Amino acid sequence: MKWLVLLGLVALSECILILPLRKVKTLRETLREKKLLNNFLEEQAYRLSKRDTNIATHPLRNFLDMVYVGNITIGTPPQEFRVVFDTGSADLWVPSITCESPACKTLSTFNPQNSSSFRKAGQPVTLVYGSGLIRGFLGSDTVRIGNFVSLNQSFGLSVEEFGFDGMPFDGVLGLAFPSISLTGARPIFDNLWSQGAFSEPVFAFYLSKSKPEGSVVMFGGVDHRYYKGELNWVPVSHKRHWQISMNRTTMNGEVVACSRGCHATLNTGTSVIYGPKEMVTNIHKVMKAKPKDSQYVVSCDAVNTLPPVIFNINGIDYPLPPQAYIIKVKNSCLSAFRGGLEALSPDTWVLGDVFLRQYFSVFDRENERIGLAPAV
Length: 376
What we know:
Layout: H1 27-33, H2 37-43, E1 56-63, E2 67-74, E3 79-86, E4 92-95, E5 119-128, E6 133-145, E7 148-162, E8 171-174, H3 188-194, E9 202-206, E10 215-219, E11 232-235, E12 238-239, E13 242-246, E14 248-251, E15 254-257, E16 262-266, E17 273-275, H4 277-287, E18 290-292, E19 295-298, E20 309-313, E21 316-320, H5 322-325, E22 326-329, E23 332-335, E24 337-339, E25 348-351, H6 353-356, E26 359-364, E27 369-374
Parallel strand pairs: 3-8, 4-7, 16-25, 17-24
Antiparallel strand pairs: 1-2, 1-10, 2-3, 2-6, 4-8, 5-6, 6-7, 9-10, 9-26, 11-27, 12-13, 13-16, 14-15, 14-20, 17-25, 18-19, 19-23, 20-21, 22-23, 26-27
């Protein structure tokens, strides 16, 4: 069974009017205007780079290269759940025992009455993702990720779920910036940070290829065994999603997308790569891909002849070989590129697991930057 997983792209249903205020420029903005930001980020050396002993590594299970899932517990005594660690959203939720949607029938559900530390907030919540939506209510309890303990952690409890049928996970743990939290609650990473759980407010992902074991999310630093060479740091361009600026995308030395620069979000909750429809069409022309049932079919032999798709980010090329962007499903092969997603702005890409399997990724909240290096 194959899943197309698209979490993290959240659609807000409310419009907020914000009156303009005179804004004082931050150091980051001033440096960016003077083109000094990259030098500044390089000078802020990763203080844990030589001290791997402070790193906490949490295993993730790879389900058919479509979604990566890790275990957490909620409550006293702890109740265990499988969640997607999603850099594209900021909320934590799991199914409530009162959920009657078909998607909840085969999932682990949280029973508040079995937890002595549970507190019900009662506030109704609706969380919208690219894959579907959930409706429920807010509560708070003790949440554990391995040895990390987040006290009084707010989280959502779903009573209705749409679009999550057959998924191999119970809920989602968002790791994006607090500004995109739809519940208004402090995300678990921020809660742990404020409680002094780690000496450096960073997390990182290594996503395995093909095999179910070996993938990890790590907190508090980086483990150098998971990547080759040096980390290249890219400043975050928008503090909502983990968004960065991208210079261009090329194949065979020709620019096929992003010719005037564009944006990209790094999203561990998305299985493929999304881009503006016209740009993805250019890539599919080079691939000689043909449309079929809202996807694009490619000759399986093309994996040996097609060039890499090269994303140039912050002046550095990140090649994506055809072995990565061509997905074999039974006797056919599909393109990992998707176009025309309505939630995207005209110049924004979503680089999902197809990209992140090739590149070890570090998300540095304190310095508002992302580190990338070839994965081992």
